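Reminder to self: tokens first, then the designed residues, so the page reads top to bottom the way the pipeline ran.
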């Protein structure tokens, strides 16, 4: 594998510009794959440079690299792995609805016939 040599400030600025422009139009999987392709093209030491340019973690670039090279399965129809992404507040705190209802139980919102509790219940 080749090693990064003579990497100038101009080279860094060019890669930053490419990454910034593409980051605006690509989804998170595609931008991760772009970062991995940049690291691969740079050769040994490229991951460190790409981390500096993108702000991505080592793990993110490694995942992209593994997906790019076929070491990690990549479902083309999905952006994230199954089960990936942020969980909803209700999944994390199943009792949240009850807590909110207890807080607003006696409050009203302008109309004494309709309490804040009514509005909270319509959310859940």
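Designed residues (124 positions):
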């Amino acid at each position: 594998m080749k090693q990064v040599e003579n990497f100038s400030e101009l080279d860094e600025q060019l890669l930053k510009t490419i990454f910034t422009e593409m980051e605006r139009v690509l989804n998170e999987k595609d931008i991760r794959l772009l970062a991995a392709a940049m690291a691969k093209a740079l050769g040994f030491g490229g991951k460190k440079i790409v981390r500096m340019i993108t702000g991505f973690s080592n793990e993110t670039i490694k995942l992209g690299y593994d997906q790019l090279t076929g070491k990690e399965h990549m479902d083309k129809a999905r952006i994230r792995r199954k089960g990936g992404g942020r969980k909803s507040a209700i999944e994390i705190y199943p009792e949240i609805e009850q807590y909110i209802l207890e807080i607003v139980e006696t409050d009203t919102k302008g109309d004494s016939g309709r309490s804040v509790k009514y509005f909270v219940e319509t959310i859940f």
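Strands lie at 108-109, 111-115.
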